[in-house]
Amino acid sequence: MSARMHLSDAHGSQQPAGGSAAGHGADGHGPDDGERIAVAVEILGLLADRTRLSLLRRLGAGEADVTTLTEASGASRTSVSQHLARLRLAGLVTTRKDGRRAVYALRHGHLRRLVDEALSAADHRVRHLPPHD
Known about the structure:
Strand content: 5-15%
Number of strands: 3
Distance between the termini: 36 Å
Oligomer: single chain
């Protein structure tokens, strides 16, 4: 299965009360753990790149075009465009046209919170902060 299919189907679909959505287990708790873990590995793999993590961190603050994202990441425009294409194909970011500009945004808040948590964990390690819940 492609990364796009895995990632775009990761959250499942909304279902009406009393209904059963395709891809949900018999207990109603969502896809089986194997599929969930495989998709999580794909997502974390996409985040495990300095440029992509920088792009996602900036997009966590709101929509941005390629010029803004290039400045925020410090990478070349070509590199930023390639990383954005990969994130878009994986279903992690959306794009819309604003005149001649392409404007990017995070697909959902889960991703913003995941990036925030990863950076918070890094803060603790870099600043030697004590662990907490």
